[in-house]
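To assess whether the prediction recovers the assembly geometry, we first specified each molecular entity separately, as shown.
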Amino acid sequence: MIRNSDILLYGGGECFQKFGVPFMGTNRRQRIAPTFARSGTVGPHASHSGRLIGSTTDRLRVEWEDADADLVFDTPGLLVESPAFVNLISSDDIAAWSTSGSPTITGSITDPAGGTGAYRIAGTNADYALRAITFTGDAIKSVVFVIRENSGIGAGVNLFDSSAATNRLSMFVSAWTAGKPTFTMNVGTQLGAPFYKGNGFWETVFQTTSVTAANTHEIRLLNNQLSSQSFDVYRVNVYNNTSPPWSILSASQTKATETLSRPWLHKPQAMCGHIRFRELDAPTFANQRVLEISAAVEADPRFLIYKGNAGDGYNVQHDTGGSDVIASVDINPVWGDLIDLWWWLYADGSVNIAGRRQALGSSTWSAITTGTPSVALDLATAWSGQSTGAGLINFGSVGSTGRGSQSFHRILVARGNHSTDDLSVVFA
Amino acid sequence: MGRPVILSDNVFNSRIYPSHTLAAQSTATDKSVLFLASGRRDRSLTGWFSNDLNTLSYVTATFDQARAFDLLFIDRDHNLATESLSVRISDDGFATYSEIGPKTVPSAPVPMSALYDGEIVMTNEGALLWWLDLQAGWAARVVVAAMGAGLRPEIAGLSLGKLWAPEHAAIKPDVIGKLNLTHEMDRSPLGQDSAGESGAFRSLGLHMRMASWDEYLTALYPIEELYLKGRKPTVIIPDDEQAERAFFAMAVPGQQGFEVPPNQFLPEITLPLEETQPELVT
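The predicted structure of the complete assembly is given in tokenized form:
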């Protein structure tokens, strides 16, 4: 059991259920708003009603998820995304795309944002809309497809390499089940299951095979396999990244840096935590932050949790400046996974971490995997910035160099060292 | 018997949230959206009236951080019966927004109204309660659709906030029906009584035991900070399965608060509730 006085921090989307704010406060004086910063435009996020809504500068987005596929948006998260995503095509003007054959493209179709920004595409076999696309860098790229059933099956996307006369991505809807699409993959990979985006629309994320940037490519939004059918499309976004952002960006939107932090004035001590978040960044990107106790990027002494360089797990690190110790847990996360991490900083300065994952669209957790404790390392007398009142605990991106994209459902830090079970039941 | 529900939070209360920005689509002379949280229960004395007739009208609270709320209360002495009501949430100044409703305001109380059905409940004295499920964002707007020729919304009091309800039902004795009766009384030397003006207001102590120490933490802000120490106007729903019996209360003087009784392990409280400005029964 964890005593009230040992709860050093509680926050995340689920904190709204208990305290009505992103981080725990028990009276007005303690209701310190988190520091959140973001410049520039940003993609919309899902509200509790399911409608996609926008957000202005410096406003932390509360992303509501339909985490259990019951078409109800009942799981809130604090959405903090990396600035690194580059949307390469405009998909909110599909009527202006080129065509092959004679597809019928109708605008002003109701969309998940409460507007009429979607399109209905109807046609027969080999009718499609297309748009040229230019990549930077030879690599796997990602595609987001947001569609709604109308009539028949066969809605799909091809990423066609005209130079090599081959597809780098090819897939189509082979079935609709209560409005949810099932895709048949010809080329490329589907990341996780389709997930609901409101007003009948479902989002599905795909990865291409590796593209050759010097070649000529076009994205083809097509009716495949069938003689006649139609479907509604809200977005077909192509990112110059191996995975997309969670936000469904429109043509004019890019991703700015988002930083989220809280004051952290607790001294280095034996402590532990439980953090649940949706993993939303490139699986292989090194140095991706989840949590960091530090006044500034890489300012020592610090404590951090980040994705391991190999991209197949998470590390916990205690760094006093002169020395550091690291423990790792290998749970093979992929984009869109819901991740549970439990971590410990022991009184002797050693660290350890445990974790599990749940695939997007699934309700089944993997077994908990626990890492191997690190060696000991004397605790510093204070974390970076702590002694001057400038200490912070940061989530996701830290400044412009440390990056991370997550939607934080639960953040708990407790004094002492407790079991995964004890950590999991606080405020449960 | 259901659980009690307490609404002491109010994003429209500038005493609780001085950093919130309150605004309205339009406001009649001598009225203000600031008055909605005053706790006075008479629209001749307080409240907000739209200045425009037969126009979609609204009041807006823009928060100082992302906040959650789940219960709307509109005090008695409004003119919204049979009108269309909705609540909008936005993070971008209502360029885009999420909307709950619109729903039609009932014209009369219905016995055994369950709060969590999500329908608008009219209380026995005419106030409105609407459980919205949990919503979170940076601004909330309460919207009244155009009411017809010559009409405009007139609201004496309004609360929109995060409710608090104990995990377990209140502990017996069940005191939700207790009233404090008062009379002006004259008695003649021969013992003949002559009753003058009489009154009755609910006066009871709601006894609750926390299910865990975690729950105690969640109760500190709405109960200790806002209701007791802050003495904020508070909506009390003694039984969420009979929400029409809700009443309006403010804390009374005296020693009160959470305690862990001898031989117990969890905090308990007997929350003193005294109805404020009850409707006169004639």
